[in-house]
Write a structure and sequence with these properties.
Chain lengths: 115, 111
């Protein structure tokens, strides 16, 4: 099956710093990737759609200048949380679109803690 | 905005019991997927249903897509502790690839 990795798996940073999270499709190419955020004991909320070679499409209420997305290649999308604050602490999950049916394959997630 | 409401939100049962999780919406979906997620991990796809009335079985799990493609159910027979996790339904509307996730059902199966 299609495998998606994320790095790092968990990160702790100080308030005001920026954090970059990588999402890679390991055995397939993905022109479209998605970034989700999940709060404890809650469901996944779509933040943005990442398209290779073009600007990301952000969901309503998600600050594009706060959450920078770059999809520079067919196997890599990055999410940078700029000037992170404690309220940005969350579980960030990416997915990559694969196959004719457009199935999303999910990464293992990145736990961000902002002190 | 498409909303997918799952019920129950939380279910604690003993090994061997049966259970059903419901996923309801007022919107029509072209397909619906069920995922299971364990703490600290990403969701894992269990099944995709695309045809109204479709029933799919995966060992002890039975998935059904409503005739009108607005709702779905997941039935687990003889639950085991390994079934413990967060169950999420997610729908795709139209030809877009975006997933709308349900509110989630947290299942705990004890010995």
């Amino acid at each position: 099956g299609a495998v998606v990795s994320q790095h790092p798996s968990r990160v702790i940073c100080k308030s005001g710093t920026s954090v970059k999270i990588e999402c890679r499709s390991l055995d397939f190419q993905a022109t479209t990737m998605f970034w989700y955020r999940q709060f404890p004991k809650k469901s996944l909320m779509l933040m943005a759609t990442s398209n290779e070679g073009s600007k990301a499409t952000y969901e309503q209420g998600v600050e594009k200048d706060k959450f920078l997305i770059n999809h520079a290649s067919l196997t890599l999308s990055t999410l940078t949380v700029t000037s992170a604050h404690p309220e940005d602490s969350s579980f960030y999950i990416c997915s990559a679109l694969a196959g004719e049916r457009g199935t999303q394959y999910f990464g293992p997630g990145t736990r961000l803690t902002v002190l | 905005t498409q909303l997918l409401e799952q019920s129950p939100q939380f279910l604690s049962i003993q090994e061997g019991e049966n259970l059903t999780v419901y996923c309801n919406s007022s919107s029509v979906f072209s397909s619906l997927q069920w995922y299971r997620q364990e703490p600290g991990e990403g969701p894992v796809l269990l099944v995709t249903v695309v045809t109204g009335g479709e029933v799919k079985k995966l060992k002890r799990l039975t998935f059904q897509f409503g005739d009108a493609r607005k709702d779905s159910s997941l039935h687990i027979t003889a639950a085991q502790p390994g079934d413990t996790g967060l169950y999420l339904c997610a729908g795709v509307a139209g030809t877009a690839s975006k997933l709308t996730f349900g509110t989630g059902t947290r299942l705990q199966v004890t010995l």
